[in-house]
Structure formats: structure tokens, C-alpha cells
């Protein structure tokens, strides 16, 4: 079983975030629409991405943040996450095939962040 799902875009992989209960898209070949690109260790089962994944949405007090490192098939949430799993490390869930009805993951404002805290 894989922990990454290849998207329809070459070099873009989806992982299932156990905090957000949705997929985050990681671009490893061409930069995504935010100009962000990650290095990948080539593994679908024990993936590592560098640098960290930072997803945020909403504004002001409504702003939600999911900030994580993906290392060896585990996802480590940093303390600036706004969800309940901040500060925790979980094994990445195995991914299921995308439903035909899933919207494309391109509207996640994902950007790289190298803060190692
Ligand atoms: Zn997330």
C-alpha cells in the first residue's frame, strides 16, 4: 500500500493529511501555482519531502494553518498548526484512489517553509 497518490499532473503527489482529512498536493518536478517545489526521496511507501509543507486558508482570526514535515512515511505537525494534531507525529495514512468527483487539489495554498522548529 502506498502513502502517496500520483495525481494527473506529472511529479505532483497527493498525501492524505490526518489532521485536515483531505489531500495535500506536493509538486516535485515543476513548481506549483505558488512557485513551490519540494525534493522527494522517491518512495511511495516511506516518503520524505523537503522542506516542510505549509497549508493555510482563511483570514484573520479565522485563519487555519496546517504545517508539517513528512519524513519516512510519518507526518510531524509543528506547533503553529491550528488543528488538534499540532505537535504530534503520526504515520501517514495509506491513500485510496481518488474519487472521480474529487475536485482538483490545486486550490490548496501550499508553500514551502523551512522553519525547522
Ligand atoms: Zn493538513
Q: Are there runs of 5+ residues with pLDDT below 50, and where?
A: none
Which term fits the overall shape? Answer: globular
Helix content: under 10%
| Number of self-contained structural domains | 1
Number of helices: 0
Ligand kinds: zinc ion
The total of beta strands comes to 10
Q: Given the helix and strand composition, which structural class is it? A: mainly beta
Would you write up a description of this structure?
With 117 residues, this protein is mostly beta strands. The chain has one domain (5-113). Helices cover 0% and strands 37% of the residues. It is built from no helices and ten strands. The protein has strands spanning 5-6, 12-17, 22-27, 39-40, 49-50, 52-57, 64-71, 74-77, 89-91, 110-113. The strands form three sheets. A five-stranded antiparallel β-sheet has the order 9-8-7-6-10, with no helix packed on it. A three-stranded antiparallel β-sheet has the order 1-2-3, with no helix packed on it. A hairpin with an 8-residue loop joins strand 4 (39-40) and strand 5. The radius of gyration is 13 Å and the shape is globular. The protein starts with a strand and ends with a strand. The model has no long low-confidence stretch (mean pLDDT 89). The structure holds zinc ion (ZN). Residues 17, 19-20, 24, 55, 66 line the site of zinc ion.
Amino acid at each position: 500500500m502506498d502513502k502517496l497518490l500520483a495525481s494527473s499532473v506529472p511529479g505532483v503527489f497527493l498525501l492524505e493529511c490526518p489532521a485536515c482529512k483531505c489531500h495535500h498536493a506536493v509538486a516535485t518536478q515543476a513548481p506549483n501555482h505558488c512557485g513551490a517545489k519540494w525534493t522527494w526521496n522517491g518512495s511511495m511507501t516511506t516518503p520524505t519531502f523537503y522542506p516542510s509543507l505549509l497549508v493555510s486558508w482563511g483570514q484573520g482570526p479565522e485563519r487555519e494553518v496546517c504545517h508539517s514535515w513528512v519524513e519516512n512515511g510519518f507526518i510531524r505537525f509543528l506547533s503553529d498548526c491550528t488543528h488538534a494534531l499540532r505537535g504530534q507525529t503520526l504515520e501517514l495514512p495509506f491513500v485510496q484512489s481518488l474519487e472521480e468527483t474529487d475536485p482538483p487539489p490545486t486550490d490548496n495554498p501550499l508553500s514551502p517553509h523551512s522553519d525547522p522548529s
